[in-house]
Specification:
heterodimer; A: 288 residues; mainly alpha; two-stranded antiparallel sheet; two-stranded antiparallel ribbon; 12 helices; B: 333 residues; alpha/beta; Rossmann fold; ten-stranded mixed β-sheet; three-stranded mixed β-sheet; 13 strands; globular
Chain lengths: 288, 333
């Protein structure tokens, strides 16, 4: 059974995907669409059902919730914007972009920075607008990197405001590198003590910065190569491979899911497609 | 045999299951303050190593605390945080497996292991690295990633934090007995991470992200107390065989204590663990939110097994947390 078939086997009757079992969630549905659409044109009907599932769930504010029961648009909106043309309408994409542009980390807001300044806390690394997982909380590395990738992939990437937010996000990522040059979830220090990076977050952040000429990014690329050699997670490996490929490297070996659930299967397929020259996070698909 | 009250998980579980079936916006009764002197006993047992002896110890714990689990659904909630070669960060899998076998032997209908790590999304890979796959047969079929589980919205009544509700995993809301199995560790934000802080792992990352930053903005001590109010009778089994001191909960160093601390009142268990660690429980914010100062004093917590004095192992504390140090005997709270 191919990975495509395994992934299709996991599709729910409503057209979406769960993380492994149970009801459909936005995140695994988006990754499954990205993987299947990149794998080839033969998956039209499952993809159409998946696109319908997603389209029916856009919220009135333009964003998407992680799943039906949650009355809140969150970071998963960025994943919908990464999908192939035709998954959502142009007007739906416009309102999703507007929602995403309105999100910033709570720590970079004026009120919080003023409060921290009055408390005598340095906020150098908090001056750039990243993206949070959940509204009205701090920005973190993974949602910031995915938002950058999503905005770059939209047709609005030349818009001044969009370009400004992308640049802010890139600066946020550069300011949140760990002492080893990679990225963890976004907390480089706790009580002043340095924290170490993770493979999966180093991979997604490096992918978002793949075209940067900054020496910090070159150092992160070196680290990503080392992390790939010892990585114990399929998802981590997949993100590292995607980033290194985007930087023009050809990492050896291939990624195999340890635990064949939706995200692992999809990410392994997406990394494999990138090895063959098509990176779904950087290039636009044909219409589903 | 220690005395154990019977108004525990079985009664509350009926309510919890009914909440799931009933309404997504069900209200969970909190009731954090309890009459003085009513804690269930806390037991301290010596366990020098992660050895076969733990299987017998876990069976004795269930008997001592008179846990009625026959035909019940039990969820063991270890603390899985980080890929860790030195086996200091995460609850040791041998202890969890010993508990799994003991609850099965006691007649539980179903025993699952469940966790939702706060920073790392790759939970199964993390569990594999921590030794869970090699120590627990068919681990993947027994395990629920609480970050990605089915969810129900639960309203917080009289919350300590700024939150009025939380989405929580149905695996937890539907079980009859939740067993919190933390590692005994220092914590750079709240002083100590034990059975109550371990409940942060119930909050689904699939909803709130990695980390679950809504909890931080709402107040860490306050949300720990709120989660405790939702599960006030979670049974606690603390892995104090080898703990973590210094810059916990991730970057600290190992500290052998050689104990397993257990009880049906998480506040009493955590206060006792703090004393074992040389930390003053009266200075721990979430404990103060969950009980009166008087309730947290040592004489108010019935205890069995080893004495605190006989196993006390002062943990190294970061300079920023040295104000938490328990004063010497004679001045102790």
């Amino acid at each position: 059974m191919t990975r495509s078939d395994q992934l299709l086997d996991l599709q729910n009757p409503d057209g979406g995907w769960s993380y492994g079992a149970g009801g459909s969630w936005t995140e695994p549905t988006c990754y499954a669409i990205l993987a299947l659409a990149a794998a080839g044109p033969a998956k039209g009907e499952p993809l159409r059902r998946a696109a319908q599932w997603l389209a029916a769930r856009q919220r009135s504010d333009g964003g998407w919730a992680p799943r039906d029961a949650i009355p809140q648009s969150t970071w998963v909106t960025s994943l919908v914007l990464l999908l192939p043309r035709g998954c959502i309408s142009s007007s739906a994409a416009d309102s999703a972009i507007a929602w995403l542009l309105a999100q910033t980390g709570r720590e970079s807001g004026f009120a919080q920075r003023l409060r921290m300044r009055l408390l005598g806390v340095r906020t150098d690394s908090q001056q750039f607008d990243g993206w949070p997982w959940y509204p009205d909380t701090a920005a973190w590395v993974a949602p910031t990197a995915l938002s950058i990738l999503a905005l770059r992939k939209t047709a609005r990437a030349t818009d001044t405001h969009v370009r400004g937010r992308i640049e802010q996000g890139r600066r946020y990522l550069l300011a949140r590198r760990c002492r080893d040059g990679g990225w963890n979830h976004g907390s480089t220090k706790a009580l002043g003590y340095d924290s170490d990076s993770y493979p999966e977050t180093t991979g997604v952040a490096l992918l978002a910065l793949h075209d940067s000429m900054a020496p910090e990014v070159a150092a992160a690329e070196l680290l990503a190569g080392h992390q790939l050699a010892s990585c114990k997670s399929c998802e981590g490996e997949s993100w590292l491979r995607l980033a290194l490929l985007a930087r023009g490297r050809r990492p050896s070996g291939s990624t195999a899911p340890n635990h064949p659930r939706t995200l692992e299967l999809a990410m392994a397929m997406i990394a494999e497609t990138a090895e063959n020259g098509f990176n779904v996070f950087l290039e636009r698909h044909d219409t589903v | 045999m220690i005395r154990y009250r019977t108004d525990s998980a079985a009664a509350s579980s009926f309510t919890r299951r009914r909440w799931i079936a009933g309404a997504a916006a069900a209200a969970i009764p909190c009731g954090c303050s309890r009459p003085a002197g009513k804690w269930s006993p806390v037991t301290i047992h010596r366990a020098a190593a992660y050895s076969e002896d733990l299987y017998d110890l876990m069976r004795r714990l269930i008997a001592e605390h008179r846990l009625e689990v026959r035909s019940k659904r039990v969820v063991l909630k270890p603390n899985l945080v980080e890929f860790d070669q030195a086996a200091v960060i995460n609850t040791n899998p041998k202890l969890v497996h010993a508990a799994l076998e003991a609850f099965r032997a006691a007649g539980a209908a179903d025993v699952r292991i469940a966790e939702g790590p706060g920073h790392r999304r790759v939970t199964l890979d993390l569990a594999e690295s921590a030794g869970y796959f090699s120590n627990v047969a068919r681990f993947e079929s027994l395990f629920t990633d609480l970050n990605l589980d089915e969810i129900t919205r639960v309203r917080l009544r009289s919350p300590n934090s700024k939150l009025d509700s939380l989405f929580l995993p149905n695996t937890i809301l539907g079980c009859d007995l939740l067993v919190s199995m933390p590692k005994m560790k220092t914590h750079h934000w709240v002083g100590a991470t034990l059975s109550m802080k371990n409940l942060f792992g119930l909050v689904p990352g699939g909803v709130y992200g990695w980390p679950k930053n809504v909890l931080h903005w709402a107040g860490i001590d306050e949300t720990i107390a709120d989660l405790h109010n939702l599960f006030p009778r979670a049974f606690s089994i603390v892995d104090g065989i080898v703990g973590m001191e210094g810059n916990g909960p991730i970057q600290g160093t190992s500290r052998a204590v050689g104990v397993v601390v257990a009880g049906a009142d998480p506040v009493a268990v955590d206060a006792t663990c703090c004393r074992v660690m040389g930390i003053d429980p009266l200075k721990i914010g979430y404990l103060r939110l969950s009980a009166s100062l008087n309730q947290l004093t040592e004489p108010m917590i019935p205890q069995a097994g080893e004495t605190i004095e006989s196993v006390a192992t002062p943990f190294a504390l970061l300079p920023e947390l040295r104000n938490l140090r328990l004063e010497k005997a004679g001045h102790r709270s």
